[in-house]
Amino acid sequence: MNPLPTGRIPLKLAIVGGGRACRFFLELVGLGDLPYLQIEIIGVCDIDPRAEGFRMARKLGIYTTTDFKDLFKLEELDGIIELTNNRDVLVELVQLRPPRVGIVEHNIGRLLRNLFTVDQKLRSAEQRIVFEKAVRDFLIQQNQQCIVVINTDFTIEAVNDAYLKTVGKTHDEVIGAHCYRLIHGLDAPCDTLRNGMVCPMLETLRTGRSAKGIHSMATAEKASAFHDIVTYPVRNEKGQTIRVIEIWMDLERKISSRWEKRERELKSDLNKLIQEDRLISLGKLVASCVHEINNPIQGLLTFGHLMKEMLATDHLTGAEIAEMREFSGIMTDELERCGKIISGLLSFSRETRQAFRDIDLNEVITSVVDLTRHRIELQDLYFRLALTPEPLFVHGDTNRLQQCFLNLVFNAIEAMGPGGRLEIVSTAMAGSRTAQVEIRDTGHGIPQKHLDHIYDPFFTTKAMGEGTGMGLSIVYGVVKNHQGEIEVHSEAGKGTAFIIQLPLAASTTEHA
Hints:
There is one protein chain. The chain is built from 16 helices and 17 strands. The chain is an alpha/beta fold. The protein folds into two domains: about 1-145, NAD(P)-binding Rossmann-like Domain (Rossmann fold, 3-Layer(aba) Sandwich); about 265-510, Histidine kinase-like ATPase, C-terminal domain (Heat Shock Protein 90, 2-Layer Sandwich), CATH 3.30.565.10. It catalyses: ATP + protein L-histidine = ADP + protein N-phospho-L-histidine.
């Protein structure tokens, strides 16, 4: 980035945020009267194409996009000005930017407006030097990364507050000090042969180009911390390097930020998968409940016709009245049974946000049994439910745990033919404050070679169209999300047992 013959530094910039601030900045650059800077706006990004700055840029023939990543493809891009005032956007820009593209926060617009006004009044050479220094200091201070300006003799000329905070020094202690002595306690510049460290500063002075290296250094917070250091040359009108700008990035913080973002994405994906799996389970439940509801409806129709014939006569005998009372009682019971089935389906299908609280694990299992009982009866399975007499309170989400057990029960049912045996047993593990639920079946079992893969997403041994391969993956995710453990015991041709252990809530004793 060499200065123009006029003494102005050419900058090709893009803007993220196409609102009013963007429009002002385009108008300011259009005046072409910025001292020492020859700014060219080569791209504008905003998620709303109707934003006034976005529309103005399009009229001016400037490249526009709704995805800021497209800006990184622009040739000779020197930097991006972030005008959205959104910290998440700023962090993502810093993380994804190419190495030689700088990021400046939204405050640059307001400052440049003020500096432009001041510049109209400052015409003397001395005043212009003050103005140039104000611009430089602002660009340094507004960046949240550590920035240090170093002279060719390795003395520090300027730093920002982030740098001072990192090294735990005052401004007076830093300015004029040699960088290698201040940071590493050395008597000479870092040298690969002597101390095994690649010095980006030396590389830039030798080649005149930007350089990069990773250094471990003591900070105010840690005895040793790794920083990614990038250097940029500052040249005079003859093209000679007269200063070097160093930018530090805390690698641990960078990795931590990416990890937290990825963790949020994974949790969001798991919630979406659970809801989709609930819809699949709902389809299975509806198919079996249709039969369960159809039987009482047929009975209601039969009793309705009988009562209609009895009421066709003018007088009812005592026996007929007693018979009608019996019919109405049976009809009421059947209607209540239908209502309970529908209520259970509606409750299960309702989409809710994840909410952890103390819940009785036995109640969750009971609700799953109520939803699947008719399916078990239709398949002519022997069913045994053995729950602890006392509640088993765990800290968890009812819907997620319900889906977890429902997947295991469905797998067990589908693995058996008529006459199979399904058992669900809950116990409180003595001395470990752990609740255990075991779901056993006498189905075809899982081959030994598949046991290591059953929790892998999309892994299934079922025929095409009979399974998605996500059921056990979701079960594993839910159990781990509840700080629990899951294990499986299976033998081909004999059956399978899944054992889930969850930590009991602190309130278990209180509730009991």
